[in-house]
Structures are given as C-alpha cells and as structure tokens.
Hints:
The protein has 483 residues and is an alpha+beta fold. The protein has helices at 53-65, 167-183, 224-243, 289-297, 303-314, 318-324, 328-338, 344-361, 374-385, 391-402, 409-416, 424-437, 439-446, 450-463, 470-482; strands at residues 3-14, 69-70, 73-74, 77-80, 90-93, 100-101, 104-109, 117-130, 134-140, 143-147, 154-160, 196-206, 216-221, 251-256, 261-267, 277-278, 285-286.
Amino acid sequence: MQWEVVIGLETHVQLSTDSKIFSGASTAFGAEPNTQACYIDLALPGALPVLNHGAVERAIRFGLAIHAEVAEKSVFDRKNYFYPDLPKGYQISQFDLPVVKGGEITFRVEPKDGEPYMKTIHLTRAHLEEDAGKSNHGVQPHKSGIDLNRAGTPLLEIVTEPELRSSAEAVGYAKALHALVVWLGISRGNMQEGNFRCDANVSVRPVGETKFGTRCEIKNLNSFKFLQEAIDYEVRRQIEVIEDGGKIVQATRLYDPEQGETREMRTKEDSMDYRYFPDPDLLPCIISPEWKARVAAEMPELPDQMRERFMKDYGLSEYDAAVLTAGRDVADYFCEVCKSAPDKKIAANWVMGEVAANVNATEGMTYATAPVSGAVLADILKRLADGTINGKGAKRIFSLLWEGATDTVDALIEKEGLKQISDASALEGIIDEVLANNAKMVEEFKAGKQKAFNALVGQAMKATRGKANPKQVNEILTKRLKG
Length: 483
C-alpha cells in the first residue's frame, strides 16, 4: 500500500522581550536556578499578572509579516493541567480568540532525492502564552529539581494547517519560520537556549484517502536535524504498526536522538481536557488600528520583498536571491556590498562563495562580525572590475584582510605587487616572446586544437607572474594567432 504523510507543526517561539509576559522578572538566559522568578511567576496568593506591551507588539509584527488577520480583540485563557514546574496549576494562554489568525509562509524545500521546489502553507493561528518552568532530573539521587526561571517567559505559539507532506517540507518550513522571526527581531532564535522549539503532529493515511489518520505529537524538537529524524522514524513506526494489523493510539511522544526513536510520554489530551476558560485576572487585549499602523510603518523589508527586488534590480536567479535572503545577517551584508559594488551578480557570487565559506568555517562568526565588511568587499570588487587586479589578486587581498591586515585595499595591492599589467604594448612584447618560444603550441592551435590556445594563455600569465590582464591576454593572443 502507498502511504501519504500528513504533518502539522506547532512552534513555540520565545519572544525577545527583556522581561516576562506577565511580570517584570528578567528573561536573560543562564542565571542560577530560581533567581529570575518573582512572586507572580511563583503564583503567590494575591499576585496579579500584567500583560507585557512589547510581547503584544512582537505578535502584531509577526501577523503583519505573514499577511494574517491581527485581531482587534484577543482574550487570555487558563489552560488547566498539573505539572511540577507549573506553579499555578494552569498556564495562561489563548484559545478561542488568539492575537493572530491565518496567514501563510512560502519556503524552499530541499528533498534528499529530487529537485528543490517552493511551497506555500497556511497557518491556523499564532497565540501568546507563558512558558512553564523546567524540571532538572538527577539533581540528587532519585530526586528532581524545579527551576522556575523560565516560568512566565513570553512565547508566541505558531500553528500550521496539516499541509506538510514530508520531513523535508517540515524542515524547510521550520527553517523559513526561524529565519523570519529572527529577521523581524521578535526572537533571538537561539535553539540551544530553547528560543525555538517545534512539536510535530504526524499521521499517515493511504494515498487517495481524504480522512486524516490518528496523529501522534512529538514534543520539544530543538534542532532541524532532530525534527527530520523524529518525523522519519515516526512515519516508519506508524506504517509498520498499521501494516501489522495494529492501530495508532493518539499520544504525546518524545524523541531520543541517541537511540534514533520516538517513545510514548503520555496519551494525548484534547482541548476539552484542559478546561479552558477566560482568565478573570486579565482584561481582553485591544489592538487599535493606530497601533497596528505604527507597527506596520516600522517593519523592515521582508524576505520575500527583498528576494523579488534582488531578482528584478540585480538580475539574480531565484536560487541566488533565496540564498541571500535566507537570513537577516547575510541579507544585510549583501545589501552593504551592493551600495558601491559595480557588478551585483559578481558581488552575489563572492558573498555566497568566499565570504560564506570563511564565516561558516569560523565558530561563532557571523556576517556582522566578519573581518571583511561589506563596504571593504565592495572596494575589492571595484578594483577587480576596473582591471587593477585580477581574480587571483582579489582573492589574495580578501584573504589578507580576513586574516587581520589593516591596510586599505589599494595600499595592499601596491604592497603585495598585485597590480595587473594592462599596458597593451608591454603585453604585446611578452606575448610575442611566448609565441616565439612555443612554436609547437602555435602549430597545434592552427591545426584546430583549442587546448593549445589555453596553454599559450597559461604561458603568458606565467611570464607575467600572474599580473597580466587575462582579458587583454586573450585579445592580443587571438589577434596574433589570426595574423
């Protein structure tokens, strides 16, 4: 039997506010346990929550970016369940009236087998909520510790429609969403710190079936690699269970990366089990048209807009434009180069080639902290374009600057003796000598062997120690050989 995979993702994005969603406690990462939990986070009697204005504004920014409906009125509810690190016995979240409804995200899918393609999926909602604390197991033998520093951390939970059809599509969507929330500045996106965590709802059904199968939810996947591995395993597991005559039980599962398998954590609750009701301590959140308009006016250029601009104004391919807008840092760097670089396509090749290779090879390096700034790279490309240096010389200058050279580009060109020989009369003399010393190659070229021409070019470049202008060398050689 042929099977179709159905996947929906719920992504918890930690918002980049300095304080928590309902209290003034800090959200900074790495503090000693329970040092960033105030009386509101601890749910002491009489403590009342106060909504963080910055958290709401970040939700508005996200809603505008995905072309969703930003609700004029949204309501906070109590989601009731017991867990040791949830002091109140309930979580403040949103249910019937979330802050963001609908929207869509377009992203690039790169399957293991097959050509990359673009896909658009629709979002159900994005709602604000508080995070729970954290259970630290094994603090003492047979005991667990509770750290409430995360309790009350602001989250935006983003829920997709069940429109993903493979682990590759799930990863493509998650990467695009991660890039977008960082681009917008609404989240730091540090997955190691828990800023971006995915829950994957996975089910399978026979191809052609319209009814959904029974789903299982895989919780707290905090890397794209684990997201793909967990989904692939769960798909295989469900197919095997069904084909062996069994039934899938709706459950919450955890992924064990060491064993490469998912394991049942608990049978899955439905919304009715949480007994949602409006939180009596919080008024409805009202977003005025003026507030929304102000946020819209402060929005940065979005990735899809920038991608279209790069293709239209710079003549870049869809692939190159997608790579250069995959993250805010690389997009900002490329834009800085393009302010003065004469050839935007060559600039794109350098950013995706030399710059990307060096950034990725250095742990902790970002485009913003790269030793060669976008403006300096543009200076190198200017000298490449006007013939002052050739490609080899440009790479040498780039390498020296990356390694810490403090001279200007022009000063380094002089210091390293990399200036091209562009004087036609000087090159003609050198090429005449090369032809005289390589008569056999000349005869081979006249006999129709194109490789002989390339060899003669190589000899001319060798004679000038790589300083000759390659374009002029080709032109003069062609003229001489035809003559």
